[in-house]
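Q: I'm building a small set of examples for a reading group on sequence design. Run inverse folding on the following structure and report the sequence directly after it, with nothing in between.
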């Protein structure tokens, strides 16, 4: 599967994943999926912001992270301007794909079996998230 950088670099000026590892590129640009349980972010409990590894856009806050037991970092709510969704009918299933609103990189999928208040489960590839711990005392 080849995907041109030209269609993805967009207006953010971030280029085509400069500085990304091949595995990050495989997920972000090639709609790949990381191995469940492989992300250290599964156990991340600190306060902070989860940003896109491709362009730095803020996607999720630690307030909406929960332990879904799926092996992937999971959130019940995204930052409104952070992500966009599209219908994905690959692999014989209809799923809702989640991508970054900034660089359009693939992040994961959203499922309707999450906890209240949203009932949503944003099932993310931790490898394409960059955790930024909140600075002590500075608030969010
Ligand atoms: Zn991005």
């Amino acid at each position: 599967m080849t995907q041109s950088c030209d269609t993805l670099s967009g207006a953010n000026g971030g280029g085509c994943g400069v500085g990304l590892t091949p595995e990050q590129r495989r997920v972000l640009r090639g709609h790949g999926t990381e191995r469940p349980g492989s992300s250290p972010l599964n156990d991340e409990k600190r306060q902070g912001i989860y940003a896109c590894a491709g362009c730095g856009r803020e996607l999720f806050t630690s307030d909406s992270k929960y332990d879904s037991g799926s092996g992937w970092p999971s959130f019940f709510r995204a930052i409104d301007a952070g992500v966009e969704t599209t219908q994905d009918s690959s692999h014989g299933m209809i799923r809702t794909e989640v991508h970054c609103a900034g660089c359009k990189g693939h992040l994961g999928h959203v499922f309707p079996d999450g906890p209240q208040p949203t009932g949503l489960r944003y099932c993310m590839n931790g490898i394409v998230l960059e955790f930024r711990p909140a600075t002590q005392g500075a608030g969010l």
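The helical segments are 6-9, 22-28.
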